[in-house]
């Protein structure tokens, strides 16, 4: 598939890939290489200019609004900026992850069905934050907030988790924790994960497979097992050569 923005920007150029259930696929590539655009195709936030994107059997370019809503219930999204509501408790933030499954708005924790509140607590426990359930979200560390955002995404019981630079705002230790968590949940739930990262080390440690993008083209698509760091770094090289790149600091 190809995605053009206006006459000049070809954000994705003849991209073809298939992600299997339960895989953890990491997208690597320089800023502007098309990672976010590719992620946004998966749940139809963006649709291809030519070619097709099929997610869970749905052709997102041809899907009706209703089909897309149904699809998006099965696709969780985690962002670089965690997007928790700071004034709410962590638990209530996690409960909001179930809103798509409920009817009508909710005002306050107590207005959620007990089953949802219990499931939110279970998900907080899974991400190691049961003790912080009643803490205001804006008093949590960045790593805790992102783990909370993962718990919130899990409320949808998604089949696919998309993560756009989920650890870009975190210190290395918290970043590793969040990626470890995402990989663990993928393995436990057979959850398919597509995640963009700027850290090659994290990609190699926690991903099953790396897709490298350069100017919208796939320049690398390979399992991480046996993949050398230098080879992964070549995604960032201006010319395809064994890279000892200036960008090593991002690793
Ligand atoms: N809605 C849009 N309208 C116009 N151009 C867009 C739009 N979305 C993305 N682009 C362009 O498509 C290209 C790919 O952008 P994209 O955001 O996918 O890159 P990225 O790999 O996620 O970069 P970063 O690492 O900075 O997040 C860029 O040239 C960008 O300017
Ligand atoms: Mg991006």
TrEMBL record:
Q: Per UniProt, which keywords does this protein have?
A: ATP-binding, Cell membrane, Membrane, Nucleotide-binding, Translocase, Transport
Specify whether tRNA processing is a keyword of the entry: no
Key word Translocase present: yes
Q: What is this protein called?
A: Phosphonate ABC transporter ATP-binding protein
SMART domains referenced in this protein's UniProt entry, alphabetically:
AAA
- Give Gene Ontology CC terms: membrane
Domain (ABC transporter) spans 2-240
